[in-house]
Each structure stands twice: as C-alpha cells, then as structure tokens.
Amino acid sequence: DPGSSEQQAASSPTIDFFSPDFDAYAALMSPGLQPPKPKVKPLDTVAQCRRILPQEVDGSTAGAPKPAERSAHSVAAQERARQSSREAAARTLRLQAREPILQKMAFAVSEQGPFGVLRRCYQNKQRVKVVTRHHKGVRGTCIGFLMAFDKYMNMVLRDVDEEYTVLIRVVRQCGQKTRDAEDEQSTTGLKTRVCRKQEHRKRHIVQLLIRGDAVVFVGQVD
Amino acid sequence: EEEAALPSLAPDKACRAVHGCVTAWQLRRMSRHVPRSERSLVCVLQAMIGVEVLVELRSDRYLKGMLKDCDDGMNLTLEDATSWSEPTPEDKSGLLPVVFIRASTIRFVHLPPDLDISKAVEHQRRVRQQVSRGSRHSVQPAQSGGKGTEKQEL
C-alpha cells in the first residue's frame, strides 16, 4: 500500500525532513523520496538564511524593511548596460569571424591578370623568385616563400636566398702607355683611377619585406 | 528654426544633427571602412613599432635602429640608429639619435626572424580598435576574445 509505505518513510527519523536526526545522504540514496515542498528555492547565502531566522535570534533580519522598489531611471540604466555588453560581445564575435587582414589584402587583387600569378603563389605557399633593381639596373634575385603581398607589390618573403651585385669603387693604378715604351720615364705617367667593379654577393635572410618599387618581376620557382 | 536649417543639410547629416545618431547605411559604410594602413603592407611595419629593424636603402646603405614610427606611406622614423654602406660594412657611423627615412628610398626591411606577421598585424588591429573606441570599454573583453581565437587557431 503506497499510503502505509509513505507513513513508514515519514516516520523514519533519518529521512524525515523535519526531524533533527535527518540524514541528507540517506535521503538522497532512498529512491522516490521527495522533499515536502520540492519547488522551494534553496537558500544559497547566509544573508538569505538570516531573513527566515526568528527575530529573537541574534543576527536575524526577519523584521528588516524590504529594499525600496528600483526607480525607472535605475531600471533603464541597467537595460542600457546590458544592451552595451551584448553589443560588445557581438562585436568581438564579428571581429573573430572577420577575415585576417593579410589574406584580405592578398585576395583584394584580381584572379586574372598579372596579380593572379602572385595570388596563386600566395595561395599555394610557393617559393618565388623576385628580381630586384637599383636605380640604374638589375641588382639581383631573391628566392623565398611568399608570406604576404599587396597591390603595390610590397612583399614579405621567408627563408630568402639573395644573390646580388654591388657596385664598388676600386682604386687602381693604371699606367699611361706611351709610344716609346722603352723610355724609363713612362712610370711617371701612372695615374690612380677609380674603377667601378661589380661584385657578386650571396646571403641568406630569414624574413624580409621588399618594397614594391624595388621589384622588377616575380616568378614561380618549382 | 531647426526645420528651416534642415533642408540645407544633407539628409544623413540632418539626421545626425537632430537625433545624434547615424543612419543604417552610414553605419555599414563605417564598418566596411578599411584604414589606409591596412590596405598595404604598411600594417606589418606598424606592428613592429618598438622593435629593432634593419632597413636597407636603395643607395646600398644600411640603417639599424629601433623603429619609432611608421606612417601610412611607409615613411619611417628610427631611434638610435647606426649606419653603414654595403661596399664598406666595417665603416659604421656612430649612434644617430633620430633618423627619418623617406619611403621612396627604402629597398628592403629586414624583419626579426621570430616575428609572425599575421599575428602581429591582427593584434595591432585589435589595439587600434580599442583605442578608437575609447577607454570606456576596458581592455579585458577584447584580449580574452583574442586569446580565445589564438587557442582555437592552435
């Protein structure tokens, strides 16, 4: 009989909610046992418990006046604060979803045409060969992985092998050849001339930004 | 009086003047606006302000110093720079306190090898947006958002 079993359950002091011998663990372990008022809100803080203490007990706030109703201004301010925090959260979400700048820059150029080559090299992360110039002619070649580029052909390359030429001035003594070579005084005709020589140099650079106006052309390296 | 002033203003500006807000399409345009620095690789250099860089000029000259400022046209300001020439690298100048480099004279900028340019550029963009929004919005939410994205990327 369900009625007698309930009475039996109520009589047992360990699972009787109102008895001083109430054992919470036993109550949790007994199946089908419901608290007398299951929908009551639990008291989470000490301050909440103070409100139900009898007034005679020290520390009770049972008789304390309830806090005043919130003004319309306060309610409106809280709503505005909630709205702004929601907007901030939405903004950060949009920021995270936005395309990274360097990728957007690379894809801002058209797929066909000259920049299509650069774009494909960037997409496939290929090694490219960039021929650079100084003011009077070709300087050398840079071979590296294309990390970023823009519409001005500024590029960032990685693991660059650069082979380049440098114009250096060499002081040389050039003799003036006279008709009569046997003449001992031909040595007085020695002049010091400054000759310009092209020196080839090689180096390895880990990360390099190349400005667009120093570029002659860019090609793929298989 | 206000109604008399309205017809002379453009409709959007009138809206702003009267209501103190912007129209929807203005908002969309503002959100689509890409700052000039982000339209070219100048953003990479701006992310490196405060880092020591080596700038190679078209005149075969090197300038190594701390990058103080980089403007939208890639003109650079270096601090405490040493200078030497490509043909004679041993002949280094003393410390030059402030050096202004015109953008058109730059050939290469040697970046530090451990720098991840995409991360640096994204971080710089977040910082710039926080600054433009003002100190009212604290740093924490954006940074925690940034850290969250970094975790996701990893």
Helical segment count of chain B:
6
* Strand element count of chain B: 5
How would you spell out the order of helices and strands of chain A? Answer: HHHHHHEEEEE
Q: Helix fraction of chain B?
A: 25-40%
Adjacency order of strands in the biggest sheet of chain B: 4-3-2-1-5
Biggest pleated sheet of chain B: 5 strands, antiparallel
Major beta-sheet overview of chain A = 5 strands, antiparallel
Helix proportion range of chain A:
25-40%
Rounded radius of gyration of chain A (Å): 44 Å
What is the C-alpha radius of gyration of chain B, as a whole number of Å? 22 Å
Low-confidence stretches of chain A: 178-183
Q: Terminal Cα separation of chain A, in Å?
A: 87 Å
* Shape field of chain B: elongated
Extract low-pLDDT stretches of chain B.
1-6, 138-154
Number of strands of chain A: 5
Average pLDDT reading of chain A: 82
> Mean of the pLDDT scores of chain B?
78
Largest interface: A-B, 37 and 36 residues
Strand content of chain B: 15-25%
Walkthrough of the structure:
The complex is a heterodimer of chains A (222) and B (154). In chain A, 29% of the residues lie in helices and 31% in strands. With 222 residues, chain A is of the alpha+beta class. Chain A is rod-shaped, with a radius of gyration of 44 Å. Helix content of chain B is 38%, strand content 25%. Chain B has a 5-stranded antiparallel beta sheet with strand order 4-3-2-1-5. Strand 4 (191-210) of chain A pairs antiparallel with strand 5 (106-111) of chain B.
